[in-house]
């Protein structure tokens, strides 16, 4: 029997995923779930494959330093801005991600952020928990209604479309910008804007669903926030660096924006400390794909890619 490929798994994974990895690979686990940081390269010594997560930064220098034995990197994520894919490719290292399986989970969190920010859920919850709720009142924590309003979506990939379906079920009118206009079936009645500024101008609610790239970094800056209707609600489940934090915080403080819901942050788990001080922002710790179902499926998808690679088959999720 041929030796099992040696696989470094950088973070703790769901039990069933780790069990399958142990069965099929000479797997090195990280039961303490420590962040490997610069230690990743050392930990990868003698391995054929890496199963990584967004908490590992594989930039050009890290890719260059990987042992020559490493032939594939499977990331337990759909986002891959933590990996310099071009540098990996140049070294002949395949890279795969886990699309599809986390679409519903992430779109659900986007909807949660939209509702929570618009209806001030966190303020209400804190009031009840802290015993500050004195009586029902006609003007208690008034929010913004979703139905009949326009939702602008930047990035109509799988998760953007998942968000569109959910928001449409809440009676919202969907507008979007995407690198390419979708076909009529995928568009499902959503209104395309070739110019992102035109999208912003109609978006009383605005949700980010594009990857983080050189082009999209700091997309939502002061100029683009100014283009949103006054009192808009902004939601981000994609990547923190799509937003210029200082501009968003200023707009939340001034009332230009009614509220924001954020699941992702530039430099997370650190975040701009002012976010903790302002009430009209609902904050989550990057929970987009955090369901039992999605996390199992992400692990199995990454292992499917590794299996296909070592069997010499085509990689469905190659980047
Ligand atoms: C991803 O898959 O990119 C998510 O952000 C991780 O939850």
Short descriptors:
single chain; 319 residues; alpha/beta; Rossmann fold; 2 domains; 12 helices
Descriptive account of the structure:
- The chain is of the alpha/beta class.
- The protein folds into two domains: 6-101 and 292-311, Rossmann fold (3-Layer(aba) Sandwich); 103-283, 3-Layer(aba) Sandwich (Rossmann fold), CATH 3.40.50.720.
- It is 35% helix and 15% strand.
- It has twelve helices and twelve strands.
- A seven-stranded parallel β-sheet has the order 8-7-6-9-10-11-12, sandwiched between helices. Strands 2-1-3-4-5 form a five-stranded parallel β-sheet.
- Helix 11 links the parallel strand 10 (232-236) and strand 11.
- Helix 1 (15-24) packs parallel to helix 12.
- The longest helix is centred in the C-terminal third of the chain and has 19 residues, at 292-310.
- The radius of gyration is 21 Å and the shape is globular.
- The relative contact order is 0.14.
- Bound molecules: (2R)-2,3-dihydroxypropanoic acid (DGY).
């Amino acid at each position: 029997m041929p030796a099992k490929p040696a696989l470094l798994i950088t973070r703790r994974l769901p039990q069933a995923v780790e069990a399958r990895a142990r069965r099929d690979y000479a797997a090195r686990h990280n039961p303490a779930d420590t962040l490997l940081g610069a230690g990743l390269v050392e930990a990868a010594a003698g391995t054929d494959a890496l199963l990584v997560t967004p908490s590992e930064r594989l930039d050009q220098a890290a890719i260059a330093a990987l042992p020559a034995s490493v032939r594939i990197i499977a990331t337990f994520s759909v986002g891959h801005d933590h990996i310099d894919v071009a540098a990996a490719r140049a070294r002949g290292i395949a890279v795969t991600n886990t699309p599809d399986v986390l679409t519903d989970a992430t779109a659900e969190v986007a909807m949660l952020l939209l509702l929570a920010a618009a209806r001030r859920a966190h303020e209400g919850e804190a009031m009840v928990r802290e015993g500050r709720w004195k009586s029902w009142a006609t003007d208690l924590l008034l929010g913004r209604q979703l139905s009949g309003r326009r939702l602008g979506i930047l990035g109509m990939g799988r998760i953007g479309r998942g968000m569109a379906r959910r928001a449409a079920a809440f009676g919202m009118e969907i507008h979007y910008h995407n690198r390419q206009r979708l076909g009529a079936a995928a568009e499902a009645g959503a209104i395309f804007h070739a110019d992102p500024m035109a999208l912003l101008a109609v978006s009383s609610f605005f949700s980010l669903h594009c990857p983080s790239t050189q082009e999209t970094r700091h997309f939502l800056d002061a100029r683009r926030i100014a283009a949103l209707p006054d009192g808009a609600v902004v939601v981000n489940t994609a990547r923190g660096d799509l937003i210029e934090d200082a501009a968003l915080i200023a707009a939340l403080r001034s009332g230009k924006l009614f509220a924001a819901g954020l699941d992702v942050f530039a430099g997370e788990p650190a975040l701009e400390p002012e976010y903790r001080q302002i009430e009209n922002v609902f904050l989550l710790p990057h929970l987009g794909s955090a369901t039992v179902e999605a996390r199992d499926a992400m692990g199995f998808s990454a292992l499917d890619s590794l299996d296909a690679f070592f069997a010499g088959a085509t990689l469905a999720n190659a980047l």
